[in-house]
Amino acid sequence: MSVQRILIAVAALLYLGFLAVLGGAYYVGLKQAAAWPPKEAGPGIPDKDRPKVERNVQQLERRMAGLLPKGVYIVIDTAENRLYLKNGQDVIRTAVVSCGSGVVLEEPGGKKRSWVFDTPRGEFVVKSKITNPYWVKPDWAFIEEGEDIPRDVEDRIESGTLGDYALGFGEGFFIHGTLYTRLLGRNVTHGCVRVGDEDLKAVFKAVPIGAKIYIY
Amino acid sequence: MIKKALLTVLTAAVLAAAAAPATAEKASLAKRQSSLNSEYALAKDPGFYFVLDVLGRKLELRVRGMVLRSWPLQSMRFWGQPDFSGNVELVRKTTLKAPQRIVIKPGSEEEAEPAPAAQPAQAKAAPTDPAEYDLEALELKDMPKRFSLDFDNGLHVTVRSKAAGSTGMIGSLKDAWRWYVALPLRNLFDGKGDKALSELELIFDGDKDAQAIYWHFFDGIKGVIL
Hints:
By secondary structure, chain A is an alpha+beta fold. Chain A contains four helices and 13 strands. In chain A, strand 1 and strand 2 (82-87) form a beta hairpin. The model of chain A has no long low-confidence stretch (mean pLDDT 91). Chain B has a domain at 29-97 and 143-225: L,D-transpeptidase catalytic domain-like (Beta Barrel). Chain B has an eight-stranded mixed beta barrel. Chain B is elongated.
């Protein structure tokens, strides 16, 4: 009987001890939280430095404004498969597009090359504008289809696949048209950005060579 | 004499009342200068960066000062050292079930497997909505709705959608134990030095918000926490 009582007392003490420690932990946590955000006084600016800080803020704001893209440019959201044609901060046109599928293609046999079909992300510029483009099929296009890679360049050329216009932004990547319009809005491409006919025409007409492209 | 004393007290009160907004204004000016400095350091480079405005309750993806995406926070909670603001870099992105890329190996056994014979009676009609096509692709819908981000300043951020909370009784109990017991105790005992706990949980309204953040936040992305 007395052993049982001792055990109950020990358990109760342990429980109370645990609660006391937890209470201490909450006290510390609340104290830390109370210190944030820093009090309104903040990092004090002496009155004599205030004009200098104000000038500095204005200068930084001007510099930040100077970094914003100017003129006509393209913004592409690879997650939502959307292309935004913008002029300054105004969106002129929104288009549903198809971006990279993220699939990895591995070459069978000896060479063991592999390709990742991602649309590259970052800041690019329009390097070329092509009307009635034809596609010079790269090696992966044949490997994917299980076909032999041709030796002659002529055997790689395919017309009509890329639509009426193409805007090149480097490393073989293009913003171009598509035959698979029903898949616009999905990630299906090998890295290029496929756009519907009407939107492609509008983008091609509006964007000059050298215009910025932001892909994220 | 009493009149003079009253006048002095009143004047002091008026001056103090006038000084309070001036102090707040100075603090906001100092904060603005600091946040602009932090952001300018990132915006002058062509890379994408994020701005987590904790008090403004929003997370933004930006480039060159331009906001590309903005995700409003539904709610947030925090344990640990609160001095995590400033410029940070994402060190690691972790999730329980990371999305896997589909690997295509032409000519492999899976590819060579013959397709089952067509069964016209049971054949499905082609979907009319592009979203219904079952594609071999890694898309936004495949991204996790709950994941963690570790930053170089020791800040650990859990991002999740409102709907991606713990499910079931065991899940809820586990989550409650972690947040209300384990973390406070860890904060108490490891609360000092480099190992100091800094745990932030950001909850977003929609699944797509959390998934888009996973999509756009790559390892090494830099950002500013305000």
